[in-house]
């Protein structure tokens, strides 16, 4: 018996939920930093510092202070600012390569096996703040079996704005309650629930490293709570 | 040597170029018409009559007389009008099933083998007037290996408006000249070329049935001209 009666599409938060952004960014930052003689900078600290600028950058869009701007652009502005703080200058091609580290993130080991089990019975798409190209390049490189690339750019709104969820359901030709969001973040799920979607929490206890203190447990009675995508597939009867 | 030096993404017209819409619609129309005791109506004629309303419906959007409206909605309005002419009434579920015949079209036999050869070296996406759900359901059912679902809904503009082409390139993070449109229609290719894209004509001599008189040859010096997706893959060196 499925945990989600009536749900036809599963949409997924991506950074942290499907892919391990912190180790992926650190891997490529390490190469970049070594090339610039800055092995003194911890690559994981670099990843955290870059990611720390993520919410404020999107907030400028969510608040209406700037028009919708895709995440590749925000990531690049944030990178330029971060490198300025470190006093590092680099060529355009190298900056573009590092910015696209977000396109080269690896999935958690259970993600693709779980998605492949869910796919025959559900429509699968990311509902991420990543832009279409970022998510599509990531999927192409890693073999993530999405049926379409959805998310902020298709909806022209950043989570947790309600339009990010409701427009995604509309693109899918579904009522919000026929769509379930899978995410490792209680805040994202809370916003999805307010917009009418079903919710599944998947625990990612090391997204932020070994000492993670946030999102270490389900904070509401989400329709499903699982320790991996494979465990979620079990609950869905897939 | 590739026919497209510098081209990183291949985008594809879909109805007629990738899939055989006429036989697909006729197949499901035949079932519907028989159920309603109207075997007197030729299913291929029904498909042609439904398709005939396609350009005028999009023209209402292109001209600005109505806001961007996805193709599933236009198809359904056109179906309702067509059935009204035939004096046929049906239940909502049945109308929705028939309207989604556009989601269940089969690719031409060479399409998927050709795409699978092109995919390792190119980013592949539809650039169709079909909406995201339509194209994604079609791909899921038939196994079409797109990297992302692009087109009118992502660009919020219907071909041959220039924005349909230029916004698609922008989503891909590419200059227009780094994108090539593959299409069986000279008019589509001409608009893509005016927008700065590269162009490939693939001949589909029976899209409109055995007596087709349009698009039976390349009408400009398109960068590539091929008789099938496999022949195009040859020209691309894939």
From TrEMBL, chains A, B:
A single MF term (Gene Ontology): hydrolase activity, acting on acid halide bonds, in C-halide compounds
Record Gene3D superfamilies: 1.10.150.750, HAD superfamily/HAD-like
CDD domains: HAD_L2-DEX
Keyword Hydrolase: yes
Xref: Pfam families: Hydrolase (PF00702)
Keywords: Hydrolase
InterPro entries attached to this UniProt entry: 2-HAD, HAD-like_sf, HAD-SF_hydro_IA, HAD_sf, S-2-haloacid_dehalogenase
Signal peptide residues on this chain, from the entry's feature table: none
Family annotation (PANTHER family): HALOACID DEHALOGENASE, TYPE II (AFU_ORTHOLOGUE AFUA_2G07750)-RELATED, HYDROLASE, HALOACID DELAHOGENASE-RELATED
Identification of the protein by name: Haloacid dehalogenase
Taxon lineage: Bacteria, Pseudomonadati, Pseudomonadota, Alphaproteobacteria, Acetobacterales
């Amino acid at each position: 018996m499925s945990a989600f009666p009536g749900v036809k599409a599963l949409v997924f938060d991506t950074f942290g939920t499907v892919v391990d952004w912190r180790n992926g960014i650190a891997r490529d930052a390490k190469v970049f930093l070594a090339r610039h003689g800055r092995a003194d900078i911890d690559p994981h600290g670099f990843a955290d510092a870059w990611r720390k600028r993520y919410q404020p950058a999107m907030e400028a869009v969510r608040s209406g202070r700037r028009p919708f701007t895709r995440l590749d652009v925000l990531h690049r502005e944030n990178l330029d600012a971060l490198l300025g703080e470190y006093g590092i200058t680099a060529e355009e091609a190298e900056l573009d390569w590092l910015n696209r580290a977000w396109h080269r993130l690896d999935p958690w080991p259970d993600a693709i096996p779980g998605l492949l089990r869910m796919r025959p019975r559900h429509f699968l798409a990311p509902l991420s703040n990543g832009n279409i190209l970022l998510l599509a390049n990531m999927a192409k490189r890693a073999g993530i079996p999405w049926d379409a690339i959805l998310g902020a750019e298709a909806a022209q709104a950043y989570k947790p704005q309600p339009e990010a969820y409701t427009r995604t359901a509309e693109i899918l030709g579904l009522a919000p309650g026929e769509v379930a969001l899978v995410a490792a973040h209680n805040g994202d799920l809370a916003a999805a629930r307010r917009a009418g979607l079903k919710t599944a929490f998947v625990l990612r206890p090391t997204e932020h490293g070994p000492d993670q203190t946030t999102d270490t447990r389900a904070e509401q009675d989400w329709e499903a709570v699982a320790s991996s995508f494979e465990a979620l597939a079990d609950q869905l009867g897939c």
